Amino acid sequence: MVIGKCRLCNNSIKPFIDFGKMPIANAFYFKKDYNKQYYFDMKVASCSRCYCFQLVNIPDPKLMFHENYAYFASTSKFMQIHWRKLSDKIKKKFKDNKHNTIIEIGSNDGIFLKNFSNIKKWTAIGVEPSKNVAKFSKFQGVKNVIVDFFNYELTNKIISKFKSKADVVISTNTMHHIENTNSVFKGVKNILNMKGIFITEDPSLFEMIKKNTYDQIYAEHMYIWSAISLDIISKKHGLFLYDLENNTVHGGCTRYYFCHRGHFKRTKRCNNFITKEKKLGLDKAVTYKKFREKIINHSNKIYKIVYDLSNKGKKICGYTAPAKSTTLINFSRLNANLIDKVFDNTKAKIGKNYPGKNKIPVKSSEDFRKEKCDYVILFAWNHKKEILKKERSFTKKKSIKWIIPMPKIKIFK
Ligand code: TMP
Ligand code: ZN
Fold it and tell me: Phi and psi (nearest 5°) for 309?
C-alpha cells in the first residue's frame, strides 16, 4: 500500500483503508457536467506519532471551497439554536470586559457570528474562503467578513487592519476542513490575547469509531480530530488544551477549549475524556484495522437492503443530501437504479446530481409531498429529530417507511 506523509508531523503514514476514487462531497453538478467531475483517491490513515486521523490525499482546497460552495449551515434550525447557545455562553464569560473581539475561522453564512452583530462591545470578524456563503453572512448582519483561507499570514493582516488581537477565536465545524493545521495554530497563537481562548468544535473521532459513522470521512473532512492529537499539536505551538465538552450534534461532536500555555489548568472532564479515548484505542493501529472491517460490513449491508427492496419493485427515495452521504452512496454502490431521487432544501443542490458516478438527482424538499415512494432513506440521520417531526405525519399517512442508515440501520414507518 502507498505510504504518505503526516500533514501534521511529517511522519510516514500507511492508510488502513482505501475508499477508491471519490468525488468532492459537496460538488453537486448539473447533468451536462457529468464528465467534468473531479475524483481523488480517498485513502485514510492514522499517524502513529501524532495520532492525527487524516486523508492521505486531498483535492486542491480551491476546488472544495469556492464561490459555488453548496453548504449553508443555516439550513438547520437546530444548528441555529445550538450556536446561539454557545454565543450566549461566550458573552457571559467575557461580560466584564469593556470591549471584545471575536474571530471566526470559517464563518460560513454567518450562522454563529450573527449573534454578535449589532452588539457595541463586540467586534466580530469572520474569515470565510467561499465567496457565496460569505456574501450571505452580510445579509445576516455580519459586517466584517474576510474572503480568504485562515492561516498565520492572514492573522498579521487582521492585526494591522483592526488594530486589535482577539479575545476569542472560534471555529465551528471548520478545523477538519483546513489543510494546514500547523499554520492555524501558529496564527491563533499570534492573534490571541493573553487571556483569550480558542474554541473549536468538530465531529469527534471517539464517537465516529465507537458508532462506525464513517460517512463523516470525505474530501472536505480531511481530518477527524481527537483530544489526543489536538493536545499534541496545540502544545507544539505554545497553546494548551484545557477543557472540552461533548455533544450529539452531527452524530457526536467535541468542543475543545485552548488557552496560551500555562494560563489555565486542565479540567477533570478533559483528562477523563483523553483516558476514554486511549481506552478505545484511538492511539493504536489495531483499532483502525477493526474499523475498516466494520465499514465494509456496514456498506455491504446497506447495499443489500436497498438492492433487495428495489428488486421487489419498491420505490426508494432519499431525504436530505448532506455532504457525508456522498461517501455512503458512492462507497456502497448505491445509484439511480436503486434510489430514484433525493429531496433537499439547499438551493445550491436542487436540480443537480449527486457527486460521483451514481447519477441520483436532487429535488426540492417541497417535491417530497408530491412523490409516491415506498421507502425513504434519511441521509442526514443527525437531523432525525427535526426532520421526523416535520415529515412523519405525512409519511405515516402515505405508508412510506424510513430507512435510517446510521449509526445503526433502522427501518420503521
Ligand atoms: P448536515 O448534516 O451537514 O448539516 O447537512 C444537512 C443537509 O440536509 C443539508 O443539505 C440541508 C438538508 N436539510 C433538509 O433538506 N431539510 C431539513 O429539514 C434539514 C434539517 C436539513
Ligand atoms: Zn503525525
Answer: -65, -45
